[in-house]
Amino acid sequence: MPHSHRVLAALLLMAAFTALAAPARATLLADSTVADAWRLENGLEVRTRNIPGAKGVSVTLAFRAGSGYEPAGQEGLSEFLAELEFMGAAGDVPERTRAEMASLRPLGWESRPGTRLVRFTEIASVAQLPGVLQQFAARVAGVTLTDAALKQALAQVRRDAGARLFGDPGDVLYWRASALARGLSDEQIVRHAGMPGLSRLTPQEVGARLRTWYQPGNASLALVGDLSSLDMHALVGALFGKLPGDTALPDTVEVRFHSNKRTVSWKGLSAPVGVVVTSGPALTDSLHAPFFVGMLVTGAGVNTSWGKPAPPLAARFQYSLLDEPELVRFYPPVRADAIDPDLLAGALYEQLQVVGGQMVTAPILSHMRMSVRWLLGAELPREVLRQFRAEPGAMGTLSSGMATRALWMGDAFWKGYLGHLDALSLGHSFFYDRLAEAKNQTLLLLTPAP
Question: How far apart, in whole angstroms, are the C-alpha atoms of residue 194 and residue 158?
Fold first, then answer.
């Protein structure tokens, strides 16, 4: 038996055995799932949610390594390091490609660089779990860096950035508008796609940055699934406990909104498409929780009124609390002869008047609130539990959220946020004047190229 297989077998046997005598540390929730949280001596934050009957386990490892930590002149560094960390070889763990991931992790996987965090998620069977965790730990211990590995990773992230910023119009609206809302100029957007500042990096320089960003003291690990047969304290401790930790990067990344507008001629379009990006209150503002629920109601309203969009659009409304709590995106219908991005703002204003005039009863608001509480650590609704037990891939949303909350703002903050959500008293249209103000909007209109 290969050495790595013997190690995994020993870890699995140890975890199963120690589960018999493990002291009670976890909290039984009203949905019959069990939540646990602890911190290793090296600083790694660990969160688990035991869901009996689930057919798989979702593992998310998150780091404070987002684009908000990039030095000036090194645009794209966060994505570049994430590609190396998630796909690179480490010890006896081989490198892998996106094409291979479908067979390696058929239940699902994701590498998700963001502004604040980078999150890696892999979903596996319980039998595969020790192996998945060992590979994560091996990569945290140090990926193999060569000139060829750096060249390959840089080529991949450049292709990814080019596709987002210059490819499918639906993706372009999402990513370009976000960049404009953050104050990037057109020249800076082009520079980000090319990432010229990364070409001169050496393996030694990349290794030093990886050791600073991708280390246990700057990370959180979340596991969701049927963990009943394992002692996760023992298993996680055996694999991650001896890895050296260092000081965490500060949790200080802020997104500053800049009002902006653009009309861009785009090849391949048969009709104009556009997006309105609006800003809400800061996440730390006690009004953000009612803003969150209000946007859920608003999203349902515009989806009904505007109807299903035609390609290249995939949605009329997009908003993610745990990715970009500051920004909300609306994709209104656009006239065939539209060339002025202000028409997008007008369409949104008219629709907000329609949705704002609709009766939203207390039971509807309560239902909206209950449908998202689980994202913040509360009990899982029955329909979500059923989905998790039938579709293991769906659990990635929960493990990703748990890892995010542990590392960004922390458990105490999100407990307070949940309290603000439960104390909701504002109507859904309370923030509509803010959404309609030009200073809080970025407009991007794509028109067919001649």
Answer: 6
